[in-house]
Design brief:
It comes from Rhodovulum marinum. This is Decaprenylphospho-beta-D-ribofuranose 2-oxidase. One of its GO terms (molecular function) is oxidoreductase activity, acting on the CH-OH group of donors, oxygen as acceptor. Keywords: FAD, Flavoprotein. The protein has 13 helices and 21 strands. By secondary structure, it is α+β, with helices and mostly antiparallel strands. An eight-stranded antiparallel β-sheet has the order 16-12-14-13-19-20-18-21. The protein has a five-stranded antiparallel β-sheet with strand order 5-6-10-8-9. The relative contact order is 0.15.
């Protein structure tokens, strides 16, 4: 194992760092790397500065991706933290199992999914990723330490969604979900406006549901979009595996200019007929639609993008409509905007989910108005009693985040015991002052 000085960034590319990186393959090499006093990071699919440590060391865990054990009767899998969720889906779906919760990309690692307590298109009934973790092994100075919700409830809760601050995640024991096959039956419905979208999400009985929203639409068309509802069905994978394409260069600003985005959104909406559409899709295409385009983040140009993602309580849906209207009026949204219903499930002190609705919108970082807009949206979220998703954040303010996460003090107390000298600090944790004294 060697250390390499490199420039690296989060997926949004608007936040970057220069520092030394190591990529250990075995536990002894990991223990040696941790002696450099830096955080463990995953595949850097967090959008902002969560996986960055500018001017310091960081340990990239992607080479530690081995399957350690699997019980085919119970679906309990033990796996190293560097394994990606997409790889687990490919390996175990043919055997009748899949990770119980999958985010929007299969390139996220198990360790990253735990550190951010990720959620998926089934959060309203399956909860968050950390709720399906039976045990997690942290690498400490004394060696590997298994942490369970029964034996170490405080430390376990601080680790789920804890941004890697309780120590390097070496491996985890996961409860996989049994599935009938490798197919998803998907129903797509065109939705005319925001109120109709909320009503459709509430009425949906599908196991998986996600909405694409035209974040450029205003007034009577505000919140129009497409609702996708999915159910797992029997059958082998339909069709051949996708051949991934790539974006070879940073796109010019014109590529995602406001007129282009509006035209694309109009086309994307009307490709679904008035009567709706039913399709059978492979699991990976449903769960990870953008993974077929490698480096799609380059479409935003060399300055990258920020994503604003919030969740508000169910009774604050009108506030979410105002948030969406503010984004549409600002004219900064990209084609990527998502609306979902969430249940109450969350596994950690800093876990993002709450029962309500979540909205995620990408914004090109080249737009000078984005930081001020983001601050205004933060205030609206706080007033609505919601939260900002730290896995996507690159612009939030410390005082806002402290107000949005009421369990911050409990998390801080556990982290202070697990890492008293602050070896696991990242740029995001420093920027938001998450480990400052309560």
């Amino acid at each position: 194992m060697q250390w390499k000085t490199a420039d690296y960034a989060g997926w949004g590319r608007a936040r970057s760092a220069r520092g030394t990186l190591a990529r250990p393959e075995r536990v002894p090499a990991l223990a040696k790397a941790l002696g450099a006093r830096g955080p463990a990071i995953g595949n850097r699919r967090s959008y902002g500065d969560g996986p960055l440590n500018a001017g310091g060391a960081a340990i990239e865990m992607t080479r530690m991706d081995r399957l350690l054990s699997f019980d085919a009767d119970t679906g309990v899998l033990e796996v190293e933290a560097g394994a990606t969720l997409g790889a687990l889906l490919r390996l175990f779906a043919p055997r009748g199992w899949m990770p119980a919760v999958l985010p929007g990309t299969g390139f996220a690692t198990v360790g990253g999914a735990i550190a951010n307590d990720v959620h998926g298109k089934n959060h309203h009934n399956a909860g968050s990723f950390g709720q399906h973790v039976l045990a997690v092994t942290l690498m400490t100075e004394a060696g590997p330490r298994e942490v369970t919700p029964e034996g170490n409830p405080g430390l376990f809760r601080a680790t789920m969604g804890g941004l890697g601050q309780t120590g390097a995640i070496l491996s985890a024991r996961l409860q996989l979900k049994p599935i009938p096959g490798q197919r998803m039956r998907v129903v797509e419905t065109r939705i005319p406006d925001f109120d109709a979208f909320i009503a459709a999400l509430e009425a949906s009985t599908a196991e998986f549901a996600v909405g694409w929203v035209d974040a450029t639409a205003k007034r009577k068309r505000l919140g129009r979009g497409i609702l996708e509802e999915g159910e797992l069905v029997e059958g082998t994978r339909p069709g051949l595996p996708r051949r991934a394409k790539s974006v070879p260069l940073d796109a010019p600003g014109l590529a995602l200019s406001w007129p282009v985005v509006k035209m694309f959104n109009r086309w994307y909406l009307w490709r679904v007929p008035d009567t709706g559409r039913k399709r059978t899709r492979p699991l990976d295409e449903f769960f990870f639609p953008l993974d077929a385009i490698h480096d799609w983040n380059r479409l935003y140009g060399k300055k990258g993008f920020h994503q604003f993602q919030c969740v508000v309580p169910r009774d604050a849906a009108p506030a979410l409509r105002d948030i969406l209207a503010t984004i549409a009026k600002a004219g900064v949204a990209s084609p990527l905007a998502v609306l979902k219903r969430m249940g109450p499930g969350r596994a950690g002190h800093l876990s993002f989910p709450m029962e309500g609705y979540t909205l995620a919108v990408d914004m090109p970082a080249r737009k000078a108005k984005v930081p001020a807009l983001y601050a205004r949206l933060e205030d609206m979220v706080q007033a609505a009693g919601g939260r900002i998703y730290l896995a996507k954040d690159g612009l939030a303010r410390p005082e806002t985040v402290a107000a949005l996460y009421p369990e911050l003090d409990a998390w801080h107390a556990e982290v202070a015991k697990a890492d008293p000298e602050g070896h696991n600090l990242t740029d995001l944790v420093r920027r938001l002052k998450l480990r400052s004294a309560a």
